[in-house]
């Protein structure tokens, strides 16, 4: 089991009012984790136009080599992205006492609070979050007793558009593995599960010693992230190190999650990523966490395995995997692994050697 830390008292500090970084949020020097710089040939996260006739190939290559890419021409209306961002801003701008009325309960998943991965780190992160699973209504009503419907409408519309895009991306990702949506019965079912995670990273008085969101992989099939125009997201690439994923107006960031990693038998690595903060800008991001119906067993696709390429992972349901992640955090994938890497078929997602916090 991964080491857990007791919750620190300063959990609900109003970060926007802080003139100095409190000890509770001061991480050790992050210098050893800075992105590697090679100015002549910067390694950049791929940007894929989904209307490109070669989109399947481009998506496959990006999944294999990076586990993260940005997409343009994705079909989600730009004004919906703007409305979602405005709704997030409005929520996080509420006074702390108001936000706490919608606080996530100790064992719950929905609501306002610090990052759930905080329990695995001795210091707190410079961020606050709001998680929505299912209807936003109950929590929105506590935040705005008389004016919650606009927020709920935007969330519902956003989830609908994200679901459409997630299906399109799944079809491209599976297609690039030589598999169709029909081969994977649950993939085209309506019962897919998802959560929406709103993240706020206020401007920070000492950004070099603070951490917005510590390095982690997502427990999803895939994640669709909208970030505002402030940089902060970094992805880790084997052999390169930490690379900033720059905001591109209108583009969305796609991460391969742990379940796609399992499904692809390690061919598409689940990407380790984190969020940094800065001194002057408030950063906001909205992650759509997309997974299969929660009780469907996910295992390496049979088309991808044979005697030379045995399944590397055992079958898990999403709900079982979430429990494993809550216990083992960044070692969860290794904990459902069946056998060690074979020659030429290495699992690129062994993050045990990467400093995550
Ligand atoms: O804010 C970001 O860019 C990253 C968010 C993220 O990784 C998450 O919500 O899991």
UniProtKB/TrEMBL annotation:
The chain positions of domain Fe2OG dioxygenase read 191-292
Q: Give the pathway listed in the UniProt entry for this protein.
A: Hormone biosynthesis; Plant hormone biosynthesis; gibberellin biosynthesis
One GO MF annotation is: gibberellin 3-beta-dioxygenase activity
Keywords linked to the UniProt accession:
Coiled coil, Dioxygenase, Iron, Metal-binding, Oxidoreductase
| Its EC number(s) | 1.14.11.15
Q: Which InterPro entries match?
A: DIOX_N, IPNS-like_FE2OG_OXY, IPNS-like_sf, Iron_ascorbate_oxido_reductase, Oxoglu/Fe-dep_dioxygenase_dom
GO BP term (any one): gibberellin biosynthetic process
Coiled coil ranges: 148-175
Acetylation among keywords: no
PROSITE patterns in the cross-refs = FE2OG_OXY (PS51471)
Cofactor(s) for this UniProt protein: L-ascorbate
Q: What class of enzyme is it?
A: oxidoreductase
Q: Which Pfam families match?
A: 2OG-FeII_Oxy, DIOX_N
Family statement = Belongs to the iron/ascorbate-dependent oxidoreductase family. GA3OX subfamily.
Read off the PANTHER family from this record: 2-OXOGLUTARATE (2OG) AND FE(II)-DEPENDENT OXYGENASE SUPERFAMILY PROTEIN-RELATED (PTHR47990)
Name of this chain's protein: gibberellin 3beta-dioxygenase
Give the species: Ambrosia artemisiifolia
């Amino acid at each position: 089991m991964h080491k857990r830390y007791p919750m620190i008292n300063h959990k609900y500090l109003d970060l926007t009012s802080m003139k100095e970084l409190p000890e509770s949020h001061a991480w050790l020097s992050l210098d050893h984790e800075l992105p590697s710089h090679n100015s002549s040939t910067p390694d950049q996260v791929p940007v894929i136009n989904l209307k490109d006739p070669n989109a399947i190939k481009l998506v496959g290559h990006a999944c294999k080599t990076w586990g993260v890419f940005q997409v343009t021409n994705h079909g989600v209306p730009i004004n919906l992205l703007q409305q979602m961002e405005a709704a997030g801003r409005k929520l996080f701008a509420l006074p702390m006492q108001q936000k706490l009325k919608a606080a996530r309960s100790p064992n719950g998943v929905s609501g306002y609070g610090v990052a759930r991965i905080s329990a695995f780190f001795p210091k707190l992160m410079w961020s606050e979050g709001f998680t929505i699973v299912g209807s936003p209504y109950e929590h929105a009503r506590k935040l705005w007793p008389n004016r919650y419907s606009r927020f709920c409408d935007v969330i519902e519309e956003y989830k609908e558009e994200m679901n459409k895009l997630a299906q399109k991306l799944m079809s491209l990702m599976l297609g690039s593995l030589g598999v169709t949506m029909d081969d994977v019965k649950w993939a085209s079912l309506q019962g897919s599960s998802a959560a929406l995670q709103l993240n706020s990273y206020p401007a920070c008085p000492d950004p070099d010693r603070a951490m917005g969101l510590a390095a982690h992989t997502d427990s999803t099939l895939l994640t669709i992230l909208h970030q505002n125009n402030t940089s902060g997201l970094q992805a880790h690439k084997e052999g390169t190190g930490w690379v900033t994923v720059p905001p591109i107006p209108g583009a969305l960031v796609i991460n391969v999650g742990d379940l796609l990693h399992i499904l692809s038998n390690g061919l598409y690595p689940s990407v380790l990523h984190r969020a940094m903060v800065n001194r002057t800008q408030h950063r906001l991001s909205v992650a759509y966490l997309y997974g299969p119906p929660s009780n469907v067993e996910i295992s390496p696709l049979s088309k991808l395995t044979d005697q030379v390429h045995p399944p590397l992972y055992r079958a898990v349901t999403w709900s079982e995997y979430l429990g494993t992640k809550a216990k083992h955090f960044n070692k969860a994938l290794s904990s459902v692994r069946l056998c060690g890497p074979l020659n030429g078929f290495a699992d690129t997602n062994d993050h045990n050697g990467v400093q995550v916090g």
